[in-house]
Structure formats: structure tokens, C-alpha cells
């Protein structure tokens, strides 16, 4: 179930003293080969963190041998000094692992605008190197948690017996483009880096890009995929991508399930759209309506807020043709009143909103969360 | 200070029994002439309410003699029957006031997706007609309140002695395009309806369009401006527009001050932009960041959330050139750490965030609110 489920990978998670509370805060993942193909996707936020700048360069040749991740500080908006901190981190990992600095991906998560405590971090790299084991995936997944309450891990077996494993962190600043988080994926399949990159882009566009907990896109989003080739199996690309998407979706769903303060996980499914882009635009608009999200928190099947969020999009639809069902009850029919809203049971954590635009055959689903007291509390208190 | 401050207007506010709590819920405004020029701007939401559909038609000829407004129900997403309810309302007003139905604007506010109690509403029209007085503006302003805690009114005197008065309601679903609310403005100036319309569009684009409390655009937004000509004064259009914008800004500022659950009124001023559109896009993006809004609630000058919201825009800027000041303290300089954030005092209700993009000479300001427990509470409980 972890990033060490695939052959050829070692991992560790240690407490380096970056977090003031003494919890694990540094993870190291090492690919032992024989191959070092790698792929990555990064935040599209134009204000991106130093480790994102570094990792984009490091992965440009399609090869990585190690990834180091720290919680306790995002190293974002820290200027040239912050960038040099990421370089120094990669350099230390390279020296203890025995590779080039350019073969080391760096990820950071935590507060924006604060320099990392580099002495603690570099000592932590040494500590993590000594702790590397072939079953260290769990420890690594715990070391990257910030406001996460549980570690997030997933794995899948592919045809012939290759494995894909993954871990993720992320609970706030969860929005598409891609969804905000750090993710490391590993596989022992034999996949050339251009194919690996294409598979990763396709898998993330259908998974992490379709969750939007709070509409806020982070400066540090990173998904890295390392392929050791240790299984000796060369999968068919379509089959590999499908398995990769399964692992990514499991992690994405775990992110939504652990989103800050949430009491509902909400699937917003838009059908009957003229195009997939239309379906996505409508689903995202609903998923970003604070009023809709508050209503779901209040177990209130407020379909008027679904319609008003639909109405601000450019998607093709006739307002008098809109149907909305919430948890199986068609509360809005033809843009007006449908079945009795009292029939809707919103007590389960998982909630399903179905919008039919009656404008075509395309469909898409976005997952989001409700807006709660605890979301406000966590994010009012997080950095003070 | 009210809509009856201008000569030629009568108004009333009564309890018609539309609201279940017995509070005033129906307002009537009548223009006694001698002129009946009128202008209107409406929600750009494609899912718009029946009274919006009606009022758009009614004002197409640039003439209105009366406006009837009800709280206690939005008459939105009510289909053809709901539209006929708006027609019946205009018809009853026309018969008691003595004009054509097409000279009556209709506005509704309250829950979406519920039919209005028409018997109560039509009796209320009769009641309101009998209560019309030349100082009924206050009563009218109270009758249109929903979750508003105070009535909102404003007035201004123009050159030569003409008057502009106004009232507004709105506390949630406050977002631009235009900001969500009902507003009635009156003037005794002599202004032809095409000039009136141009003045109104310009005034609203600089005022109501620049407040965004919660990013949610309503189905019922309406601003109507009635000109009686009773002062006999024909103002210079630029001077008239400036005074109209003053009244609109006063009302807009009152809307922000009474936004649901808010504890801070936040001015987000973006300067050094390559264009006004860029400045507006950045200011709106910051104003819609739930994480930023939670931070301000927590009295936390979290400039990292300002930068991450800036980074998702298409505006021209270099991330390493961004400056951010919060309440006068430059907490971010050149995209990195600035002065000590502990120097920022966020205890006053009014908060000023200044972002310098260093990309040009244009500037714009958007006003928003913080995101609080009480916002969530009000909107989780509003309709259940």
C-alpha cells in the first residue's frame, strides 16, 4: 500500500526538528534502479516555491534517483536565499545517496514566507539516509503530513505483476490546476520517461485535477513519479496509465476525505453537457460556491444555490431545462421545483449532487467538501 | 437620507405576511412625476428570477412610475407560474397607483425555489398604497431587509439643489457583476432616460461592481433609478453621474459593513498594474480566497495567501517584484519577507491590503469581508 510496495525503492521518515512539535517532518525516497525514469507535474500557480523551481529543473532530463520532502515550511516566497536552501538540500541528499544533485527532487510544505531551519533539515537528511529501508513507505507518508490527520497511501498491481505505489499529503489549499498537495508515486515497471510523463499528465488530469476542496491553489503542488524498472515488466502504456490513475484517484479521494474541517465529501456530477469543458466549468463553479458548501454543512438540500452557481458559467444550457438531484432525490426539475426536499437525507458523509444540463452528451465530476466552522477555525489559527 | 428625500416620490413599507415572522416585507415606491424617466441594471446570472425578467421588459422603454419590492421570497426558479406571479404583482400595483402594468418594476428577495404567497402579497400592495407618504423612505428600506441587520440608505445634493436618494438590501450572495442586492435610487433631477441609463451603468461599475463579500452572485440583483424631474433642474451629466456614484458608493459600503457574519471590512487595493483589468483581476482573486479571508478573521497578516491568490491570475507581474502591505506594514517586499508581521494591527474592523505589482500605473480596489464562523452558521441554517 505504500511507496515501497514497488521493488527497487527505499524510504524513510524522520523527525528532523523542522516542526516545533517534534513530529516527523522529513521524508526521503530513493530509487535503487536499475532504471531512473521519472516524471513530474507541478502547480500552475505563477507564485511557486523554491523547491518547485528546483525540481522542475532536476526532472527536465526525465531522470531522478531520490526525492526529499519536508513538512514544517513551504520555502515559498523566500527569494534567492530560499532557492539556495533547496539547492543545498538536494546537494546533501546527493552526497549521502551517491548521485548527482540534479537527480534529486525536492518538495516542501508548510507555511509560506518563512525560511527553513537548514541546520536541522540537513542533519535530518543524514538521519533519514541511515533510516532508509525497503518498508519505510509508511514512515515517509507520516513525515509529510501538515494539517492532515491521517497518512494517505495507495497501490495497485499491473498486468504481469508490476506494482505502482503512492503517498500524498494535503488538507487545505486544495484546488485544481493541479490539486494542491505533494505526491510521490513509485513503480517497478519499465517505462521510458517520455511515456511516464504522458501517463502521469493523463492520470493527474482525471484525478487530482478534479478535486477542489477550497478553491485555493498552493505555491508548492508537486507530483513526482519514479520508475525503477526492477520488476523487469514493460507494461502496455494504456494499461499502465489506467493503473496509475487508479492509484492517483485513491490518493485524491483520501485527500478529500481528510480535508480541513470537512463533514461532507461532495461529488458534483454534471451530465448532459455540450462538452466536457462545460461540464467541468459548471461542476467547479458549484464546488466553489461558499453558500452551497455551507448549505451542505447544514444538511440543507439548497438546490437554488446549485442553480445560481450554474448561472454564472458560460456553459451551454437553457435555465428552464436544468434538473438537479441531491442524494437521489430530484429536487429541481426543469429549472423549477421538483420533488419534496424533505426527502433528501444529507446525514451521510458522502453526498452526490447530479446536475443535468440537457445540452449534450458530455459529463464530468468534481469532488469538493462542505464549508464548516472547523475549516474557518483551522485557517484562522494556522499560522498565528 | 432616503428614497423620499428627492421631490416627487412617495413610499411605504408594510408587513404583508410574506415573512412568517410578521416583520415588514413589502415596499412600494411611487414616482409622482412630472417625468418618469428610469434606468436599471440587473444580475448577469443566467439563472435569473421572474421579477428580473419582468422588470427588464418593463424598463425597456426607459419609463417607470412605481417599483414594488418584497422580501420573504426571491421568486427565482419558479418557472412560468412564478413569472405570472410577477405579472400579477405589477398588475395590482398598476391598478392601485393608476398606471400601466408596464410602468411598474418588480423586485423580490429571499429564498430561491419557493412560490410567493400571492394572496398575502396582493393584499400587501393595497395596504402599501394606503400607507404611501412623502416620508415613507425609511419604512420602505426596512421592508426589504432579509438577513440585513440594519436598513441601508443614502442621499446627495447636486448643483442647483436637486437630490439623489437611495436604499439597498443585501448581506449574502454579494458578488460583482453586479454585486448582489436590491437597490432603488430616486432623483428629482430632470434627466432623459438614455442619459440616466448611462449614468447608472457608470456609477454601478465603480461601486456595486467593486464589492464582493462572498463570491456568490444572486439570481435577483436589481438596481433601479427613477427620475421625477420635480426639482426642475437639468444637471450636467458628469456632475450627475459623480453624485449618483457617491450615493451608490455609500450604499455599497453599507452592504459590506453589514455582510453576513463578517468581523472585518477589507479593502484590497492593487496598484502598479499594467491595466485596470489586471488590478481588478488580482484584487478579486485575493478577495475570493477563503484562506486569506479566514486569516483576516484570525487577525493574521498572512501575506503568503495574498501572493498565492495573486499567482493564479493572468495579470502582468514578476513574482520577485511583488510588494504587499497590510494596514500600513510592508510585510512582503520583492516577493519575499518584508517587515515584521507582528507589527500589523488587525483589530480594527476596517482592513487595508495594498498590493504593488510593479508592472504599470493602473490601480483598482475591491472591498470584501472576512470568512467567519457566523458566515458559515447563517448560511448553513438560512433555509432549513
Going by CATH, the architecture of the largest domain in chain A would be 4-Layer Sandwich
Helical fraction of chain A equals 25-40%
Number of helices of chain A: 10
What is the distance, rounded to the nearest whole angstrom, between the alpha carbons of the first and last residues of chain A? Answer: 36 Å
Ranges of chain A where pLDDT stays below 50 over 5 or more residues in a row are: 173-179
Question: CATH H-level name of the largest domain in chain A... which superfamily?
Answer: L-amino peptidase D-ALA esterase/amidase
- Radius of gyration of chain A over all CA atoms, rounded: 21 Å
Q: Report the order of strands and helices of chain A.
A: EEEHEHEHHEEEHEHEHHHEEEEEH
Structure description:
The structure is a homodimer of 384-residue chains. Chain A has two domains: 9-257, L-amino peptidase D-ALA esterase/amidase (4-Layer Sandwich), CATH 3.60.70.12; 265-381, Roll (Ubiquitin-like (UB roll)), CATH 3.10.20.340. Helix content of chain A is 32%, strand content 23%. Chain A has helices at 50-58, 79-97, 118-131, 137-143, 193-206, 237-257, 276-287, 290-297, 303-310, 373-381; strands spanning 9-14, 26-31, 37-42, 66-70, 104-108, 152-157, 163-169, 182-187, 222-227, 265-273, 323-326, 329-333, 336-337, 350-356, 362-369. In chain A, the strands form three sheets. A six-stranded mixed beta sheet of chain A has the order 13-12-11-14-10-15. The two termini of chain A are 36 Å apart. The interface between A and B is large, with 68 and 69 residues.
Amino acid at each position: 500500500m505504500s511507496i515501497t510496495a514497488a521493488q527497487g525503492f527505499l524510504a524513510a521518515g524522520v523527525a528532523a526538528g523542522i516542526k516545533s512539535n517534534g513530529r516527523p517532518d522529513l521524508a526521503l525516497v530513493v530509487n535503487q534502479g536499475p532504471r531512473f525514469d521519472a516524471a513530474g507535474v507541478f502547480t500552475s500557480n505563477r507564485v511557486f516555491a523554491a523547491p518547485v523551481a528546483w525540481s522542475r529543473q532536476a526532472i527536465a532530463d526525465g531522470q531522478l534517483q531520490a526525492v526529499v520532502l519536508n513538512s514544517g515550511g513551504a520555502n515559498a516566497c523566500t527569494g534567492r536565499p530560499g532557492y539556495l536552501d533547496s539547492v543545498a538540500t538536494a546537494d546533501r541528499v546527493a552526497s549521502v545517496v551517491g548521485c548527482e544533485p540534479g537527480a534529486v527532487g525536492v518538495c516542501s510544505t508548510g507555511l509560506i514566507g518563512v525560511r527553513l531551519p537548514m541546520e536541522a533539515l540537513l542533519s535530518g537528511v543524514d538521519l533519514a539516509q541511515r533510516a532508509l529501508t525497503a518498508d519505510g513507505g509508511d514512515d515517509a507518508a507520516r513525515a509529510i503530513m501538515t494539517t492532515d490527520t491521517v497518512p494517505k497511501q495507495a497501490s495497485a498491481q499491473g498486468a504481469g505483476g508490476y506494482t505502482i505505489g503512492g503517498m500524498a499529503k494535503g488538507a487545505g489549499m486544495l484546488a485544481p490546476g493541479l490539486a494542491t498537495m505533494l505526491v510521490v508515486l513509485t513503480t517497478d515497471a519499465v517505462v521510458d520517461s517520455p511515456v511516464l510523463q504522458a501517463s502521469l499528465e493523463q492520470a493527474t488530469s482525471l484525478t487530482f485535477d478534479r478535486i477542489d476542496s477550497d478553491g485555493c491553489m498552493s505555491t508548492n503542488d508537486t507530483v513526482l513519479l519514479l520508475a525503477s524498472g526492477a520488476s523487469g515488466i514493460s507494461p502496455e502504456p494504456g494499461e499502465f496509465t489506467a493503473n496509475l490513475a487508479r492509484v492517483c484517484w485513491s490518493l485524491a479521494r483520501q485527500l478529500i476525505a481528510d480535508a480541513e474541517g470537512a463533514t461532507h465529501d461532495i461529488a458534483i456530477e454534471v451530465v448532459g453537457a455540450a462538452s466536457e469543458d462545460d461540464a467541468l466549468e459548471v461542476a467547479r463553479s458549484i464546488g466553489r460556491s461558499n453558500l452551497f458548501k455551507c448549505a451542505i454543512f447544514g444538511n440543507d438540500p439548497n438546490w437554488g444555490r446549485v442553480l445560481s452557481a450554474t448561472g454564472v458559467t458560460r456553459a451551454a444550457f437553457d435555465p428552464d431545462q436544468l434538473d438537479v438531484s441531491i442524494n437521489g432525490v430530484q429536487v429541481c426539475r426543469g429549472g423549477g421545483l421538483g420533488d419534496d426536499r424533505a426527502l433528501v437525507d444529507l446525514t451521510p458523509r458522502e453526498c452526490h449532487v447530479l446536475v443535468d444540463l440537457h445540452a449534450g452528451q458530455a459529463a464530468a465530476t468534481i469532488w469538493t467538501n462542505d464549508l464548516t466552522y472547523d475549516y474557518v477555525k483551522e485557517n484562522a489559527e494556522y499560522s498565528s
